[in-house]
Amino acid sequence: MVERSGVLNPGLVTIAALVLISGNRALTKVNTPACIGRPFVPDR
Q1: Model confidence pTM above 0.70
Q2: Furthest-apart CA pair in the chain: how many Å?
């Protein structure tokens, strides 16, 4: 998980962050779009 230079691989850090976010029901609910299935109208 650690490269030779001692810096974490950005891909692995991204995956770890997504796992943490998706594992938390409250964060998932807050970040879910409110209007799934409704067309986007930019004038509103």
Answers
A1: no
A2: 51
Q: How is residue 17 written in tokens? A: 């962050």
pLDDT in tens, 4-39: 566 778 899 999 988 887 787 887 777 777 777 777
User: Structural domain tally of the chain?
Assistant: 1
Q: Is residue 10 part of a domain?
A: yes
SS3 22: helix
In a domain, 42, yes or no: no
Six-digit token pair at 11?
């891909």
44 vs 37: CA distance, rounded Å? 16
Give the pLDDT score at 5: 61
